[in-house]
């Protein structure tokens, strides 16, 4: 197995859509998909994977995850919402994403703004989370290596991989479950 640092480096954690990445003109769908492909291509598991497709964007629109598009062009605000969707879809269902983004969509449609500020807050937290993630994974790697001392088998590399994978998936599940609980609370507040 590659060293943990090399694996983490290959994740492309520093890649994210910033406000500066978005042109000051509205974009057609092909331009939107190309922008996302250019920014997030390093993070693909398989080179054939697509970051964002026309079908995905159409499905997001149909599910009302985005406020209405005008003249088949996507504004800077649409791209910020698509970026939120892109980040959330790895851990939440479409219905949960809709619950999370409904209020932001409504605020923007009512010209209450705030989307760029919230997105910048997300980017700041993303950078802090990435640094924390790297440290946490190194801690997990050290804990796994300690556990390997208790396993009497010649296939240590396999057991290291097994323990790392199960531990990382376990942590991922814990974070996802907590996020789902927060979505449920958000739904209760909106319904109440």
Automatic annotation (TrEMBL):
InterPro entries found in the cross-reference section: DUF1836 (IPR014975)
Domain of life: Bacteria
A Pfam family the protein falls into: DUF1836
Entry protein name: DUF1836 domain-containing protein
């Amino acid at each position: 197995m590659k060293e943990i640092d090399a694996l983490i480096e290959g994740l492309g954690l520093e890649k994210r859509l910033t406000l500066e990445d978005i042109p000051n003109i509205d974009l057609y769908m092909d331009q939107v998909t190309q922008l996302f492909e250019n920014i997030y291509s390093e993070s693909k598991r398989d080179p054939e994977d697509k970051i964002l497709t026309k079908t995905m964007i159409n499905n997001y629109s149909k599910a009302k995850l985005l406020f209405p598009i005008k003249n088949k062009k996507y504004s800077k605000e649409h791209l910020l919402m698509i970026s939120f969707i892109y980040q959330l879809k790895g851990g939440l269902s479409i219905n949960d994403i809709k619950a999370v983004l409904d209020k932001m969509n409504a605020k923007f449609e009512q010209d209450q703004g705030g989307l760029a500020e919230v997105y910048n807050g997300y980017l700041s937290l993303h950078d802090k989370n990435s640094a924390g993630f790297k440290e946490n994974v190194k801690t997990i790697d050290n804990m796994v290596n300690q556990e390997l001392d208790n396993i009497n088998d010649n296939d240590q590399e396999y057991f290291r991989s097994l323990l790392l994978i199960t531990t990382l998936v376990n942590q991922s599940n814990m974070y996802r479950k907590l996020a789902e609980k927060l979505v449920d609370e958000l739904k209760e507040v909106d319904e109440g």
